[in-house]
């Protein structure tokens, strides 16, 4: 996405704000820098929870290797998705899962601690029908929690909830749980919030395979991000999971970013900016 400030500068001029050519270049450069930012999303969790499948569903591409036989991600790797014709994308940091062995977990603890400050969002994936969270608890409380307390956007993703009993109730036609299964999914969500001592809004039940509740996950991620990072994340997720309401929220947030940038470059604009409507947006791809 490139920001073309032509309409913006015309509106400013119509409202009595003179912007020099140098100021125009400064504004466009700052906004283009924001729009070209490549967010880094960390996908954490122990092996077999469907991390790669979740990434593939969210971004509509085979961005991570999938294997049902063995752990397919032994080393940290950065996967750039939604890249074509030189455009920017999102960097998914697909890290090794915890719980393989005590030796590996010690090795991974340093990796996690090093990576966390570099990430814009952390998704900790948990298997919906898993009952043992000891390794997840240890890593969360000792390594992750201090960063979360400093404001790092973080979510537990309760994946593969279609396998929660009674799994035969799953409605294949509507891709949603049956009544009793829905209750059990809600109970599992509450259990995870209690175990990790986080708000229920930070635990999102989904099924990557069934594409269940992925729009909700996208919504929560976007709302948790700083306003200058919302647009790049939202524009790169699978359009199937882009809600209209969140799209409007992103546009409004980017309007505020435009306002902030202009106000920082052209001082007088701070005093009249609220009078300028509508705020022009770049051409978004949704």
Q: How would you briefly describe this protein structure?
A:
The protein is of the alpha/beta class and 286 residues long.
The biggest sheet amounts to: 6 strands, mixed
Radius of gyration: 21 Å
Rough shape?
elongated
- β-strand amount: 5-15%
CATH topology of the domain at 40-224: Rossmann fold
Helix count, per DSSP?
10
The residue-averaged pLDDT reads 82
Helix content: 40-55%
How does the helix and strand content classify structurally?
A: alpha/beta
Major sheet strand order: 2-3-1-4-5-6
Low-confidence stretches: 66-73, 82-86
The SSE string, one letter per element, is HHEHEEHEHEHEHHHH
Distance from first to last alpha carbon: 11 Å
CATH architecture of the domain at 40-224: 3-Layer(aba) Sandwich
General description of the model:
The chain is elongated and about 65 Å long. Helix 2 packs antiparallel against helix 9 (244-265) and helix 8 (227-236) packs across helix 9. The chain has a domain at 40-224: P-loop containing nucleotide triphosphate hydrolases (Rossmann fold, 3-Layer(aba) Sandwich). Mean pLDDT is 82; it is low at 66-73 and 82-86. It has helices spanning 6-14, 21-35, 51-59, 102-115, 134-148, 179-196, 214-224, 227-236, 244-265, 269-272; strands at 40-44, 77-81, 90-94, 121-127, 154-159, 203-205. It is α/β, with parallel strands linked by helices. The protein is built from ten helices and six strands, in the order H-H-E-H-E-E-H-E-H-E-H-E-H-H-H-H.
